[in-house]
Every structure is written in C-alpha cells, then in structure tokens.
Amino acid sequence: MNSEPPIIVDIRHISKSYLRGSQVIPVLEDISLAIVTGEFLALMGPSGSGKSTLLNLIAGLDRADAGTITVGETDISALSETALAAWRAAHVGFIFQFYNLIPVLTAFENVELPLVLTDLTRRQRREHVQMVLGLVNLGDRADHYPRQLSGGQQQRVAIARALVTDPTLLVADEPTGDLDRVSAEDVLVLMERLCSDLGKTIIMVTHDPRAARRARRVKHLDKGVLTNALEAAVPECL
Amino acid sequence: MLWKLLYRNAFRHKLRALLTVCGVAVAVLAFGLLSTLVDAWYAGVSAAAANRLVIRHAISLTFSLPIAYMEKIRAVDGVKAISHMTWFGGVYIDRKNFFANFAVDPRSFLDLYPEFILPEDQRSGFLKDRRGCIVGRGLARRFGWKVGDTVPLQGTIYSGDWPMTLRGIYQGRDKSTDENQLFFHWDYLNERLKESYPRRANRAGIFVIEVAHADDAPAVAGAVDAVFKNSLAETRTETERAFQLGFVTMSEAILMAIRLVSLIIICIIMAVVANTMIMSVRERMHEFAVFKTLGYGAFHLAGLILGESLVICAAGGALGIAATFPALRILAGYVGNIFPVLDITSTTLWLDVLAAVVVALVAAAFPIRKVITVRIVDALGRVA
Question: pTM for the whole thing?
C-alpha cells in the first residue's frame, strides 16, 4: 500500500516571459514541480528570480506562456478568465505581504468578503467568519477596522480571509515581509499549525531563511530556474 | 454587505464626495428649472383644447375683425359655439405689473372655456355688471384683490382710464390653466369706443369657435375662411393649439438656446463625476485587484463601481430635485407675470432622474472598463 499523499499541484514545463518595450525578458524557464497534499513549501530566491511569478501562476492570477499547471483535477491553464475567477474563489486562499485588507470594511466584513460569492446564508456566513476569526485568535477584534489593528493582527485577519472558504491551496507572498520579528513569528506559527493540524497545503514565497525554516520543503529559484540547493540546507525542517 | 461597501466607498473621501454630490445637485436643479421654463413657454399650447379653433385676421393678429362676422361664422356647418376676445393691453398702476387682459363676450366666453371655474354667484354677478371683470386666483393673490374691489386699468391700445369692479375670481380646472388673466365685458370697451374712436368700434381681436368633434376642425376651418375669401378682412382659422404654438415659435431660438444650455450643464457634470470616479477607482486599483484575486468577476466589479457612481448621483439628484420646488417658488416671484404657469411636471422630474442615472452610467463606464481589463498582477503591484 502506497502511503505517499496525492499530488495536489502538478507543474509541467512552465515558461513565462515579460515584454519590456520590444525586449522579451524570460522569468521562468521550463519549470516542473509537484506539490503533495498537506505540504508546506517555501519558494526562496533573490529579487527578480521569478518566485512571485511562479506563485501567481499556481494561484491562477497570471498565465504561463507554455506548459501546464494542474491543481487537483483541474488544468488551470485551460480555464477562461471567468472560470479561473470562480476556480480561485473556491480553491485558493491568498495571503499578501501588505495584507491587502479593504480599509472601509471591519475585520469581520473583510473575512466575509470571499463568502459573499458563495450560496451560504447570512447566518452560515457569520458562523464561518466567527470560526476562522477564533482560529486566528481575533474573535474579539471582529468589529475593528484595519487601521485599528496592528500589522500582525491585520495579517492574521488576511489569513482568516484566506481560510474562510476552506480552500485547496493557501498561497502566501512574503507573509512576514512587513512584520516585526514577534508578529512574524506568530504568523509563521499559525501557518505551521494550519499545515500540521488542518492539513492545509501551503506555498509560501519568502526572502527570510527563518520563515523558510518553518516549511517542510524549500525550493530555490534563481534566474528562472528551480533548484533544490536549499533543501539540503534545512534538513531539520523535514 | 456589498451595499455597505458601496456606500462607504462612495463617501470615503467625504469632501470630494460632498462636492461631487453638490455638483450633481446644482446640475439637476438647473436642468429642472430650465426645463420648467421651457414647459412654461408651452403652457398655453398644453392648455389648448382640441375642439376649439381661433379665427383671426389673415394678414396679422394686430388687425381686428368686424364683429358682424360672428353671425356669419356661427352659420357655418360644424360650428357648435362661438365667442370673441380682444386684447386690451391695459396697465394696472405701473407697466411692470404686466398681466394679460382681454375684452370678451362674457356669457359665450365662459361657456366656451369651462376650464375657468367660477362660483355661480360670482358668475351671475359678472354677467350682470357691464363694468365688471373677473381675474384668476393667481392675479388676485398677487395684487391682494377681493371681489367688489375696483380695478383701475389704464389703457395703452385704447387710451384713458378704465375702472372696473372685480366680480369674480376664477380657479383653473387644470394645472396648465392660466390663473393670471383678467377678462371684462367687450360691451364696456365697445361703448366707449363708439364715443371716442368710432372707427375702432364693433370689432373683435379674434373669434373662438367650438366644433362638435376635433376631427371636423380642418373642414370647419376651411369653410370659415372660404366665407370671407376676397373680403376686405380675410380670415385665417387654425386650431387653438396651432394658434398658441405660433407665439411660441416666435421665440424658438431662445428655447433652443435654453435646451442647449441644460444639455451642456448635464455634459459638464458628467465630466466632473467621471473624473471623480476615475480618480477614486485609480486610487483603489489594488483593492479591485484584491477583489479579482478573491474571485470577484467582471459583473461584480462593474456592479461595485456603477453602484458607487449611482449612490453619488442619486444623492445629488435627490438633493437637486428637492431644491427645485423652493427654487421655482422663488423664481415665480420674479417671473410669475411672464410665466403664469410655472409648475414642475412629472416629465421634468423623470428627466431629472434620467439625467442623474445617465451621468452615473457614463461616469462609471471608463473606470469599469479599466478595472475589468487590468491584469491582477499589474494592479497588485500598483502603488496609489
């Protein structure tokens, strides 16, 4: 009997380049990667290495020039814009470096935002939101606006927003990049718990080796090429 | 929750939102006032009855017709009733107190114009008193006249003092009925003319006839004019509506200018609101990118922007419409003698609403297109 968890993200021969004027700038070249269910993967690399681009492709925010990305049973490279938006709403939770909360909405309302697109009743939505706010220890801050919360608290609201639809994937782009050390630690502990206790698959882009150490696997991107160079460097994480 | 979001976004920058709302309100107010002025110009046309015809001198309205025509016209097939009116042009104390005043044949006039509602005792009092007159409710209110008062008119076309006794105050049956006119006995005028200007006596400014069916109007008009063909005073017969429209068309260029100005005002405010929406959306482009990231599609994003634009324009529109009523009352104080019927119509109110909605739609169109077409990764990287 095979005890290996199933592959949730299957990336095959992905390439991506950008146009700057008439100049073509390759960002990713022939990238292939498999991520299994419940994995906590860190993508590291210097600025401009293409790690955020890869994350955007996996999350369906951008499209590759070549290759395929399959998440679960869905080849997201083949989806239309509308279908891709619906797929993102159902399957992906996002955590941004600068939280990207809507300033005119309370913590509760920010977390509720992805649920507005679902068929849930108002009462069901409220239950879901209260549950995830409790999970990130912000149950008592539901009525606070983002400006009334610290950076760490805002990021935890963003994590709650990412979690509330119970997505297949959690993608995080430098989630601790704008936080002080203590808040960053809180957020990383939380993400670790989401992976270990709830079995969430997390893909995190980071510059920070301390953050990467929380991941179970680390991949390194350099000049658009994926290497395993850092996997050996963080064996204690595995 | 999306309603809350619309409202909060619309008033996120309170001063900017307030100024834009005020701009829309002023535009809607100006549009409403100008449209009402144009309507007031056409009030006589609106009040015209379909089954009444006006017979005037073929050369010009300034020429009168022999009163002897009355019986000849009455004899024409299809004529149900007939009366006559003569523009008197009298002045009350001062020229600035202008109002329309006519010498009429009282009994036939009141029968022909049922829209002038007069209490029975006042009606009989008017009919019995050869020096009596009736005025509209608006005119009586304007000068504080009561039944029994003496109204001293000074003649301009027919010189001299013309004191009359107010015998009745009529009320308009419809909103479009002019309540700022004075009518007195033609006999009073004619008797004095016989003494002082015999050549001007026994003449009427226009005849007004009623036909049994409005459909008969063209045939009856043709028949009346045929009776006086090749006479010294040929006639021109037309519907009351066409007659009134003749006055309006004299000022067609002014009306066109007013309409154009009201459209320009709407276009200007359209640009102002569009500018506000473009700025507002550009500042929040990264937020819209977050919405897109969360799975919000083009329909939802368009709804959010359009809703915001509609909230601003609805607030401005409501404020503008609400301000139109007191503004019209103030305006009526200044131009009420020129435009006796100065009421905002339901059509104007609907046009106000339509203008606000169109402004909202147009203003939202550009930002919606921008938000829908922008790539998420580009917008997320944008710093407002």
Answer: 0.72
